[in-house]
Amino acid sequence: MTIATPRTASAEKDKDPALIRWLIFVRDRGIFVLWAVLLIAFSIWASPYFASIDNGILIANAAALTAIFAAGIAVGIICGALDLSIPGTAALASCVCGWLITHGTPTGLAILAALALGGVVGMINGLIALRGFNPIIVTIGTLSVMSGAAAGIAGGYTISGLDSLVFMGTDRFAGLPAPVWITAALFAVLTVFLTRTRDGIRMMAVGGNAEAVRRSGIHADRYKVLGFVISGFCAALGGIVTTALVTEANPAANVSIIFNALTAVALAGVSLAGGRGSLPRVLVGALILGTISNALTIKGVSPYWATATTGLLLLGSLAVEKWVSTSVSRRLVQNASASVHTGTR
């Protein structure tokens, strides 16, 4: 039987905070390390085509759409609600924008109308969810409604000839495609909002513990609805950018949007319980997915393997998040308990 001496107990006490700091680093900064490792590995494996400026621009452009949708999902999760209606909202905004343009509405006004519609859809989701319904079920229902409405507006066919939207799709500014600039602007605004404004900080607090926020006198429900509104806006923006890239509006809701966006969010360590998350990490998560897909394409690997890899990343990131959170919580409790026992001697 080993008897713990004061020296060994002190060593263990000193070791635990270091381990906790390391676990928190893995949770908060591990995604940046993972991306750096992937870039180095793929630069060697897919040499000489991968490590080039032109290919880097291709990766950023491919990741832009995933990042826009992931931003909407991340904000929803952070404020305590997962919005699964994003593909339907994107399709509806795309068709509304396309229909307005083909019927003589100025392009800028059509874009604003589609973005506003996305916010309205989000508000409807939020108001229904506040009635006590499960947000996941609510947004699945609105996904079907929005998909049907998009098909009705488009008459079941794609709306083509939307060349006036190319400035948001294939046009380049300062050497970078328009979607990259749009994504950068979106993430900059949302990051400042969530971390530097009173409403953004309150929104994150609502996702962490809505009841505690409500008891402090803050209107928690208002911030939950705001989270849905932002999610709907991001979905509409993603739908318009998708339309701009192909110059046609497709009424079919692409459900793979949810899969890729959720993977980027999970990789970023956004807590599915709400209240914690970082949009810059979500952006890196989208870039990781784009990096993997790009490298596999360069090497001629079947795109099916890219899909399988994405699924493995999703499962792996969820497992790591659970392990890190559980380990940190357990060790913090052990340290607090040890401090209490030491103080009572």
Helix/strand structural class: mainly alpha
Low-confidence stretches: none
Strand content: under 5%
Helix content: over 70%
Order of helices and strands: HHHHHEEHHHHHHH
Q: In total, how many beta strands?
A: 2
**Alpha-carbon Rg, integer:** 23 Å
For the largest beta-sheet, the strand count, sense and barrel status come to: 2 strands, antiparallel
Number of helices: 12
Question: How would you summarize what this structure contains?
Answer:
This protein is mainly α and 345 residues long. It has helices at residues 6-45, 53-78, 86-102, 107-129, 135-154, 178-196, 198-208, 210-215, 220-246, 256-267, 279-298, 303-343; strands at 172-173, 176-177. It is built from 12 helices and 2 strands; from the N terminus they run H-H-H-H-H-E-E-H-H-H-H-H-H-H.
Topology:
Layout: H1 6-45, H2 53-78, H3 86-102, H4 107-129, H5 135-154, E1 172-173, E2 176-177, H6 178-196, H7 198-208, H8 210-215, H9 220-246, H10 256-267, H11 279-298, H12 303-343
Antiparallel strand pairs: 1-2
Helix pairs in contact: 1-11, 1-12, 2-6, 2-9, 2-10, 2-11, 3-4, 3-5, 3-9, 4-5, 4-9, 6-7, 7-9, 10-11, 10-12, 11-12
Mind explaining what this structure looks like?
Helices cover 76% and strands 1% of the residues. It has helices at residues 6-45, 53-78, 86-102, 107-129, 135-154, 178-196, 198-208, 210-215, 220-246, 256-267, 279-298, 303-343, and strands at 172-173, 176-177. A hairpin with a 2-residue loop joins strand 1 (172-173) and strand 2 (176-177). The two termini are 23 Å apart.
